[in-house]
Structure prediction request, 95 residues.
Amino acid sequence: DELLIKRVTGRLIHLPSGRTYNVFFNPPKVEGKDDITGEPLTKRGDDTEEKLRTRLVEFHTKTKPVLEYYASKVANINADDDMEAITQNIRNNLD
Prediction:
């Protein structure tokens, strides 16, 4: 959950283009400004730790039991791996 919290609470968006940044993982070159246009970046109103923790409680109580039920039919792919490892994991699970 903590990694997801950093991803969501650190997210910044350049609304006209849809470009996204993250203050922890992919910060803009100039704080609060789009790298290409220099225009201001915005933060979604629901990208707060409090709101995300509420959504995570909902996920853990409703979605997690469904995933556990289908565990033998669903592949568990670690999205934190590098792209090559993710691709290989997907291919291995499709065989």
